[in-house]
Write a structure and sequence with these properties.
single chain; 84 residues; mainly alpha; 2 domains; 4 helices
Length: 84
Amino acid sequence: ELADGRVFSGAQAKAAGLVDELGGLEDATSLAWKRAGESGEPRVSRVRAHRRLWWLDLLGESLLPARTPLAGGLLFLYHGPLAD
C-alpha cells in the first residue's frame, strides 16, 4: 500500500510506521550513542567525501580507451583521488 510512488512528510512517515522517531543528525547520533550503552556526549568524526573530478567526466564514455592510459599520468601529476 505504501510503495506507490508517494512522497511522505516526516509526520506522515511516522504515522505510517515507516520511521521510529523524527529528528535530525544530532538526534540520530545521540540515540545511537545511548543505544550503544555509552554515556556522556557522543564523540563524532565527520569524514568529508572526495570531490569528483568533473573534467574527467567531460571526456565521456566514448573516449574510455583514450582515458585508460591517460589515467596513470593524471594520477602522477594530480596526486589526488580519482572518482570511482
